[in-house]
């Protein structure tokens, strides 16, 4: 009878949706829903953030590449040299643009991507250089001569994986450098990249309604890929540029030699060169984003930015019919109680009785059966939970017990009690564990209840007046099985 009313109370408390500001218990316990992280990698803090570990196809993207490209204007005609306007920085290039050579260095470092590229343009043809341009137009960039010297620009891109952990890329910064100085562009929203299949990497940079640029890499094997790029101007509804290229893998020595060779072939002036290997790309803090820029400042590296996918507060399993929960608790508690008995014998029972006694002194399960309301139970839980952390820590319970609520308890008895309470061994007791434990204490409750029933009126009054006093149980020593009478 008394056990049932206790269970009903617990069940009522547990299923009450507005059951107070108790901190959640952990997911995936017997009474709570499974953790999202077991089925959804976004919630799994242990799932790697690394590109390569999320999708092995990134492995073929890494490394050093030579790229030979053909550029077309939007109308499909090979790209022509453009008179340069210094204020537009790297946009209009007074060089042969229909064909270009580039050298890429793709580095993946865990959740971070750094790509560095050298883009080479041949000197412009004489048909272009013969023309006269009025300022602000000019037919050369830097200190060279039109038709004599070629041009190189260096371009770095920085990106990260995402909190979705799908192996996708978010590029957040591009830095262009060369004779014109440095030009930093942050993408907001970031540019995207994802694998469509194991050999196709697709990317896009868009500003809704302004422009849309798509980029694709198709890897034929580990050493060869085709790249295409198309830029659509959404304001004028026209295609602005097309670029098709072939990428060929090179090793370090070949790659460095090929860059040097292109400097010679394109007659690039010494002062316009970007050194190779360009350590500055990775070392110079003016190129390389600062840690705070990676971590939420511009980029959002999942390795250092808190994910929005956090395990929600644990929910009780569904089917919140009181009867169902009672049954569940009872089914769960009976074997558990049996197990404790089997494992720990009378020790646990004795300690339980003491513990229930301590609680009963405060929350007064007598003289009215069922007077143990969920508010009272919560009050007691919160009373033990000194720091209001939502869980009872070992030290908090010890403090509560040392106040004399339960009389003296030895350290070894206390440890037995603690391990009986801390079901999941987490080092703290949440409310579900608290309730679960109490629901296995029916016998102890009955004992305390029956004892309270036998008290005389004066005893009860005295008992009540001493309820919150730390000196209330002078003779109550938890070594005996007896229910002490405080009279
Ligand atoms: C450009 O000028 C050079 C000499 O200044 C001349 O030889 C050449 O034919 C010219 N080319 C064109 C396309 O006008
Ligand atoms: C990379 O992702 C794509 C798209 O989800 C998938 O088809 C491909 O199999 C993945 N590659 C590897 C090596 O896992
Ligand atoms: C691809 O080539 C790179 C560089 O030569 C090498 O490190 C990597 O192991 C190769 N991967 C495969 C799958 O052959
Ligand atoms: C490629 O980039 C990495 C890191 O960003 C750098 O350490 C390495 O020296 C570069 N390799 C060459 C050949 O420039």
From TrEMBL:
<dbReference type="InterPro" id="IPR002048">
    <property type="entry name" value="EF_hand_dom"/>
</dbReference>
<dbReference type="InterPro" id="IPR011992">
    <property type="entry name" value="EF-hand-dom_pair"/>
</dbReference>
<dbReference type="Pfam" id="PF13499">
    <property type="entry name" value="EF-hand_7"/>
</dbReference>
<feature type="transmembrane region" description="Helical">
    <location>
        <begin position="321"/>
        <end position="340"/>
    </location>
</feature>
<keyword id="KW-0472">Membrane</keyword>
<feature type="domain" description="EF-hand">
    <location>
        <begin position="409"/>
        <end position="444"/>
    </location>
</feature>
<keyword id="KW-0106">Calcium</keyword>
<feature type="signal peptide">
    <location>
        <begin position="1"/>
        <end position="21"/>
    </location>
</feature>
<keyword id="KW-1133">Transmembrane helix</keyword>
<keyword id="KW-0812">Transmembrane</keyword>
<dbReference type="GO" id="GO:0005509">
    <property type="term" value="F:calcium ion binding"/>
</dbReference>
<protein>
    <recommendedName>
        <fullName>EF-hand domain-containing protein</fullName>
    </recommendedName>
</protein>
<dbReference type="InterPro" id="IPR018247">
    <property type="entry name" value="EF_Hand_1_Ca_BS"/>
</dbReference>
<feature type="domain" description="EF-hand">
    <location>
        <begin position="372"/>
        <end position="407"/>
    </location>
</feature>
<keyword id="KW-0732">Signal</keyword>
């Amino acid at each position: 009878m008394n056990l049932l009313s206790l269970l009903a109370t617990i069940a009522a408390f547990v299923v009450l949706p507005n059951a107070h500001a108790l901190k959640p218990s952990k997911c995936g316990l017997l009474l709570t829903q499974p953790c999202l992280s077991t089925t959804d990698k976004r919630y799994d803090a242990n799932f790697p953030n690394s590109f390569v570990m999320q999708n092995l196809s990134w492995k073929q993207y890494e490394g050093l590449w030579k790229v030979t490209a053909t550029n077309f204007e939007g109308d499909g005609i090979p790209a022509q040299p453009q008179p340069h306007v210094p204020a537009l920085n790297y946009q209009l290039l007074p060089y042969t643009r229909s064909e270009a050579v580039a050298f890429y260095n793709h580095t993946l470092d865990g959740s971070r991507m750094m790509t560095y590229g050298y883009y080479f343009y041949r000197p412009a043809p004489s048909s272009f250089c013969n023309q006269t341009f009025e300022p602000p137009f000019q037919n050369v960039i830097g200190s060279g001569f039109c038709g004599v010297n070629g041009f190189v620009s260096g371009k770095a891109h920085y990106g990260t994986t995402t909190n979705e952990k799908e192996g996708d890329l978010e590029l957040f910064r591009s830095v262009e450098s060369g004779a014109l100085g440095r030009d930093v562009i942050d993408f907001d929203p970031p540019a995207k990249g994802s694998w469509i299949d194991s050999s196709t990497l697709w990317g896009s940079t868009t500003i809704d309604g302004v422009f849309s640029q798509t980029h694709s890499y198709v890897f034929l094997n580990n050493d060869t890929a085709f790249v295409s790029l198309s830029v659509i101007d959404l304001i004028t509804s026209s295609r602005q540029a097309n670029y098709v290229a072939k990428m060929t893998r090179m090793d370090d020595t070949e790659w460095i030699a090929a860059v040097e060779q292109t400097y010679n072939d394109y007659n690039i002036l010494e002062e316009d060169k970007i050194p190779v290997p360009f350590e500055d790309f990775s070392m110079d803090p003016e190129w390389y984003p600062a840690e705070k820029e990676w971590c939420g400042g511009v980029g959002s590296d999942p390795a250092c930015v808190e994910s929005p996918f956090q395990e929600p507060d644990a929910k009780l399993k569904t089917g919140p019919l009181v009867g169902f929960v009672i049954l569940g608790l009872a089914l769960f508690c009976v074997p558990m109680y049996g197990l404790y008995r089997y494992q720990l014998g009378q020790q646990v029972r004795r300690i339980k009785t003491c513990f229930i006694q301590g609680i009963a002194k405060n929350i007064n399960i007598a003289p009215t059966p069922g007077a143990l309301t969920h508010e009272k139970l919560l009050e007691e839980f919160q009373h033990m939970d000194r720091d209001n952390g939502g869980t009872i820590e070992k030290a908090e319970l010890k403090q509560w017990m040392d106040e004399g609520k339960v009389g003296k308890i030895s350290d070894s008895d206390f440890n037995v009690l603690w391990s009986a309470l801390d079901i999941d061994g987490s080092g703290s007791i949440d409310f579900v564990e608290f309730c679960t434990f109490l629901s296995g204490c029916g016998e102890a409750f009955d004992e305390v209840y029956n004892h309270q029933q036998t008290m005389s009126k004066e005893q009860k009054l005295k008992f009540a007046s001493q309820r919150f006093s730390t000196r209330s149980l002078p003779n109550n020593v938890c070594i005996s099985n007896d229910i002490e009478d405080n009279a």
